[in-house]
Each structure stands twice: as structure tokens, then as C-alpha cells.
Amino acid sequence: MHLCPKFPAFVDYLPPNGLISDELSNYLSALINYARLQGKRPVFCEINSRGRAGALLGKFGGFHIAQYRNPLSQFGSFIRAVIDAGFWGFLAFPATELGTSGDHPLYRLIPEHWRAPPLPWHAASRAQHWASDAQYFAAVGSSRPEDLENVFRWHMFSWFLTNLAALCYADYALDIDKVHDDANYRASVVTNFIRRLNVALDFNDVRKFDRYYDFESFDATKVCNQVASTITNISKDGQLSEAIRMLGRQTPKMPVASAVHLLIEKMSDSLTCMATNAERLRISSRQWKTIAKANRKIWFDPRIRRLAQRLYPVAAPVVWAGRRAGAWYRSRSRGTRSGKAISSA
User: Fold this and answer.
1) 310 and 224 in a common domain
2) Tens digit of pLDDT for each residue in 275-289?
3) Is residue 20 part of a domain?
4) Predicted structure pTM score
5) C-alpha to C-alpha distance for 150 and 165, rounded to whole angstroms
6) Closest C-alpha to 166, from 11, 15, 7, 6
7) Domain membership flag for residue 94
8) Helical axes 285-294 vs 71-85, angle rounded to 10°
9) Are 66 and 78 in contact (CB under 8 A)?
10) Which domain holds residue 281?
């Protein structure tokens, strides 16, 4: 079988009728069986599957832990990846997630003028898939400061709704910031896991990185309040509960109202942490333009992207072959430098 199904991250990210595809089910079953044959306990840690928590629980059982963290510091980590390494992937993740699953009832609850752009994703063509992925990168990589507000709002809706989906179906909700900050909370988590799983976890190596950026082009508090009020309103009339129940075949373990309260409280704490953090960085609109332009990719240009899409079927195999050859050469070089004999086979 294939090592992994094609494009698994966002295909049925919010599973229809609470069921995962046969392809993904077979893939995960094979990994689980292999681990057991080796005398191991299979453990998955997959941030791309928060929306699948209910479906995975219904299919495989097990013990599911929903980890959640400070959303503003997380956004800061995404921004830092752009500034330090020119990497847009983390920043594009929420837009891609919300856009490719935009027809699901959970994401349709987001007001239309705040939704991420819907792009073809379930495409048979790898070229079309690449082009859609590249277009989401280009959307978040805009040098226009006013577009950054949309990027932040997509991040907050993604953080709230997918954490909500995970929390409602998880066996345990784990605040990863609190594990670091609060010794009593950390001890209670360890005790709880020993009692429920007969596993003693060691959190002594947990590290926390507070990364806060304050942008001139938008008010983070205002956007967070917009997200919180939207979620609160759709929670009152039952729409949110109905959408969450579509993600699993079983009854959610945590009531939606409780999960909403927990996440709104976490968001509020996050705003307080940012406001009181002496090391938060202020980025002006001019600075963001400079950062975005300095890290602009050639395929952000729609004309080049369309050309690359046409050339993809020919160019991609050449690129893949080059990468394999480069990896082989580097491996051989390392072996030669270490004095080890390398078989030509």
C-alpha cells in the first residue's frame, strides 16, 4: 500500500457523517497493527486531525487527548517562521483548512464576509492541488497590511472551531501552557494519566516560547471579540451543537457549551498575556510590507503560478528525482567522511 494516502491533511478534514475514508482507515489500521506486532503501544500525535477526533474515536477507540495552547503566542510563532526563515506554511495552514472544508456545516457558521477563499482541493490532478496550495500561500503572503487582519481572523476561527471539535470528542483536555506554568496542574495531569492509562508522563522537558507581535494594521482584541461573539451567538441557537454532532457517530464527551466557555476563557487569558508581555514586538504597516516583500515567492505571481501548473506534470518528476539523488549523494558523503564502507547497491 502507499505509505500515506494522497493529500490526507485536508481531505475530509471535517469527516462527513463522522466517518473517515476507507483509504485513511486502512492506512492507520496498518500502522496500528505493525506497532502491536513489535510489542509497542501505538501513539499518534497529529495536529492535522483535530477535526477528525470524533471520527477517529468512533473507528479506533483508544484514549484521545486534545492539546490546546495560547492562540496569540501561536500566531506569533507563525509570524516568526516568516521573519526568520521565509516560511509561510504555518501562517497558511488556517486559511487552507477553512477554505478547503468551507462547505462543512461547522465552517459555514462563519459569517460569509470572514470566510477563507474556497479553492479546488479534492482534485485528481497533482498540478491543480499544488496550484491551490500555492494560492493559499499567496493569500497569506500579501504585502498589504490590511490583508493581515484577515489572516489573523482565519487563524482565530481555525483555532477556536477545530479545538472545539477536538475537545468535544476527547477523553482529556490538556492546556499545554498550564502544564508549563502551573506545578499543581502538571502534577494533577500526571496523576490522572497514571490512574487512567497506567502511564507516568514526564513533563520536565516542556518548554514554552512566548512570541507576541502587535500589528499597527489591526486590533487583535477587536478581532478576538468578533470571533468570541460569533461563536457565542451560534452556540445559543443550537447550530453549533448540531454541526459538532456531525463530526462523530457517538455523543460528544464534553458539552459544546462547556468547551466554548473553556476556549473563550483561554482566548481572554491569551490577550492578557500579550498585553502584559514586555517583550512583545510592535510591527508597523511599513515593516510588514518590507517583511512580506522580502520573503515573497516567485509563484505568488498568478501568471507564474498558472505557467508552473501547466509545467508541473513534466517538471515535478524531474524535481523529485533530483531530490532523491541529492539525498543519496549526501548520505554517501556522510558515510565516506565517517570512514564507513558503502555498498554500491
Assistant:
1) no
2) 999 999 999 999 999
3) no
4) 0.90
5) 22
6) 15
7) yes
8) 50
9) no
10) 61-296
